[in-house]
């Protein structure tokens, strides 16, 4: 603002003005001036807001007030009551000041015990407060549709991955959601709104490209439908602009610039899960009976000169018995005594979270988390006994100590002890799954041993208060852990794995199916099969945890945002087609009129029946 504006006001006056505002309604002030924006986003201010309103602090206060008084103090108090009245002089002002100082230091210690952030971690506490205590809404991405015979049908999505071209450094901050569709195509959505309308479809490939035969490109010879029960069937190479999609036993590489197949790799068994793509290391592929390392840099490309050769018939190299009698040995792989892996994690490198170490962790429908070292693969390095069926794995590049977290629950660690606890080396392995039909949230502290291998130093398993049904997917979100469960909920927990911060119900994705002409029936809530954080990887100027939660229900894509109103609704995507929008409004109006007419008719029948004229 020119002249005398917000920037010219003293900070004390601006603080008083902000004190009268709702913390969730300051977003318009962020556009006033840089001074107001800096003040409104003050980390210490919002950190205190987050602390005082946190369930962790409320639980700590409750425990302190409900803690029984020791017997020795009760006896002392009883004897004091029997004695003569206290004739001591009134408490001096310096005693009140000392008491106030003690309360302040006690509050600082409580805040330090709660503080989930680590010394080297960048946190925007305004965004953290909004994610913990602000309003939230569910946004449904545009639905791919196809029209056949005048009837419009929804095309289901069968997976989810995030694509950040050039790791988010393309100049626009582009972030795209990618999913294989049930018609054999690849679809891309705009997550941030940098390439078009936020939540809209940016591009869609030709149909059947995932079903075509590898050798003769014959669309009549297809594999079966894409199995929607596999959550991690697609992974993205941001720098190479490639997507890897698992369709039964084939690993299909897609060029994201051309949306066309680049190569196909066949495995001996059906692919159940894929790891994330990291530079310089092979992709880890989990099949139903083994774990494989796939170096896509030496991939078997689809040769485009095949169709130009006349000496090669369309049925060449399609002998079904060729693979049976092939004498070529299988490449090294780690066999699984128990089938069906569900999640593969490349552990980040200590001190460099953007890079990965040689440690690979695999979970599945078995009671142990398997640990492999890429340098000694396929020899297994060790196992972590869980006892639960783990569906999702993620890692936090900071240490975990069960003993420290138990003392922090009581607010007992001093500032020096807290600093020592957070600066110890190590990482945290976070797992989510099911144990005895209930959700199990598990934390494992990992530390390097003398051989520079990660070994478990402690574990914490929450199998009572985490979720009433199985945990399907787990991720890091700011300074919190977020997971989805089989009840249709997104839940946020503190990093201690015990204290729940908030929860949000996804609801039903198909609004048109919630009611009918005759009655309004609530639809069954969808569940988030896979969740991802939309945290940007771009420059230092961005707020580090100004992100939402993208999820996949098994059919559709949605996003949980932290605002009073949704970022976009389904009608926003139909505005480009006025005829379709008018037809939809007419259909809804007709259904509403018919519903009212039937209700009036039913009321008349009941009224006449009460008169005995029925």
From TrEMBL:
Comp. bias (Basic and acidic residues): 578-588
Disordered: annotated span: 77-110, 574-593
Amino acid composition bias (Acidic residues), ranges on this chain: 80-97
F-box domain location: 3-49
Biological process per Gene Ontology, one example term: protein polyubiquitination
Pfam families hit by this protein: F-box-like
Descriptive protein name: F-box domain-containing protein
The organism of origin for this protein: Clonostachys chloroleuca
């Amino acid at each position: 603002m020119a002249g005398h504006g917000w920037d010219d006001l003293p900070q004390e006056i601006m603080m008083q003005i902000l004190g009268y505002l709702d913390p969730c309604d300051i977003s318009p002030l962020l556009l006033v001036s840089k001074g107001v924006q800096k003040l409104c986003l003050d980390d210490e201010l919002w950190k205190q807001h987050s602390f005082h309103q946190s369930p962790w602090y409320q639980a700590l206060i409750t425990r302190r007030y409900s803690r029984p008084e020791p017997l020795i103090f009760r006896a002392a108090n009883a004897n004091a009551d029997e004695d003569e009245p206290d004739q001591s002089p009134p408490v001096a002002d310096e005693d009140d000041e000392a008491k106030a100082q003690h309360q302040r230091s006690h509050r600082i210690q409580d805040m330090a015990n709660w503080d989930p952030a680590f010394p080297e971690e960048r946190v925007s506490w305004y965004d953290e407060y909004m994610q913990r205590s602000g309003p939230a809404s569910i946004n449904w991405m545009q639905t791919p549709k196809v029209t056949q015979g005048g009837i419009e049908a929804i095309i289901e999505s069968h997976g989810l991955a995030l694509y950040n071209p050039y790791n988010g450094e393309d100049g626009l901050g582009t972030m795209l959601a990618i999913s294989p569709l049930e018609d054999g195509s690849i679809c891309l959505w705009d997550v941030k709104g940098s390439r078009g309308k936020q939540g809209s479809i940016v591009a869609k490939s030709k149909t059947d490209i995932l079903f075509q035969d590898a050798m003769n490109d014959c669309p009549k010879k297809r594999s079966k439908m894409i199995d929607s029960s596999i959550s991690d069937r697609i992974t993205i190479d941001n720098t190479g602009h490639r997507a890897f999609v698992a369709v039964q036993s084939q690993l299909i590489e897609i060029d994201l610039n051309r949306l066309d197949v680049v190569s196909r790799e066949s495995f001996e068994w059906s692919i159940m899960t894929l790891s994330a793509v990291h530079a310089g290391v092979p992709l880890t592929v989990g099949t139903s009976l083994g774990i494989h390392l796939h170096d896509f840099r030496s991939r078997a490309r689809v040769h485009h000169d095949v169709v130009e050769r006349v000496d090669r018939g369309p049925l060449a190299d399609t002998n079904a018995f060729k693979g049976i009698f092939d004498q070529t040995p299988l490449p090294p792989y780690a066999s699984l005594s128990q089938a069906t892996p569900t999640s593969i994690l490349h552990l980040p490198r200590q001190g460099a979270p953007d890079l990965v170490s040689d440690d690979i962790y695999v979970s599945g429908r078995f009671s142990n988390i398997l640990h492999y070292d890429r340098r000694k693969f396929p020899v297994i390095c060790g196992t972590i006994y869980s006892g639960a069926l783990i569906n999702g794995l993620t890692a936090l590049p900071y240490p975990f100590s069960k003993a420290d977290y138990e003392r922090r629950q009581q607010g007992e660690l001093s500032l020096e002890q807290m600093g020592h606890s957070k600066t110890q080396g190590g990482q945290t392995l976070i797992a989510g799954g099911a144990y005895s039909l209930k959700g199990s949230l598990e934390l494992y502290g990992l530390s390097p041993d003398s051989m520079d291998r990660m070994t478990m130093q402690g574990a914490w398993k929450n199998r009572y208060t985490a979720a009433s049904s199985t945990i399907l997917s787990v991720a890091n979100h700011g300074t919190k852990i977020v997971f989805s469960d089989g009840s249709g909920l997104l839940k946020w927990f503190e990093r201690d794995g015990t204290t729940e911060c908030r929860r949000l119900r996804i609801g039903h994705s198909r609004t048109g199916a919630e009611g009918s002409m005759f009655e309004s029936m609530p639809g069954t809530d969808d569940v988030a099969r896979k969740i991802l954080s939309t945290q940007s990887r771009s420059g230092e100027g961005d707020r580090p945890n100004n992100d939402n939660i993208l999820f996949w229900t098994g059919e559709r894509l949605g996003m949980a945002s932290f605002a009073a109103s949704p970022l976009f609704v389904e009608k926003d995507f139909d505005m480009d087609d006025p005829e379709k929008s008018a037809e939809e409004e007419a259909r809804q109006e007709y259904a509403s009129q018919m519903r009212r007419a039937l209700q009036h008719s039913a009321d008349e029948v009941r009224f006449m029946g009460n008169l005995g004229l029925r």
